[in-house]
Amino acid sequence: MASNTNRYQQQQQQFENFTASALYCEKCRAAMPVRERLLLILPDREIFDYLCTGCGSSVGQREVTAGEKSMTQAMAERRARRGPLGVLP
């Protein structure tokens, strides 16, 4: 039972850390690739703006809290230690 709860929490964390690669743009009237731009840094979070690569208009925002940022960094460091095949040294 604890295994299922842990798995669910990991899946939720993965979903919370997603970034968009394409969003619908009103000007282009299509789903367009986007790039992320850091808009604002606050003590407890960072706010990013998604910009359409076709016309440059803002199509959305994403907030990253300090806790999410530290968790993402820790996961990246963990992956780097595993090496290219995900195998621990």
Overview of the molecule:
This protein is an alpha+beta fold and 89 residues long. The protein has a domain at 20-69: Single Sheet (N-terminal domain of TfIIb). Helices cover 36% and strands 36% of the residues. It has two helices and four strands; from the N terminus they run αββββα. The chain has a four-stranded antiparallel β-sheet with strand order 1-2-3-4. Strand 3 and strand 4 (58-65) form a beta hairpin. The longest helix has 17 residues, at 66-82. The radius of gyration is 17 Å and the shape is extended. The two termini are 31 Å apart. The relative contact order is 0.14. The model has no long low-confidence stretch (mean pLDDT 81).
Remind me, CATH topology of the domain at 20-69? N-terminal domain of TfIIb
How would you state the average pLDDT, rounded?
Answer: 81
User: Would you list the SSEs in sequence order as H and E?
Assistant: HEEEEH
Proportion of residues in β-strands: 35-45%
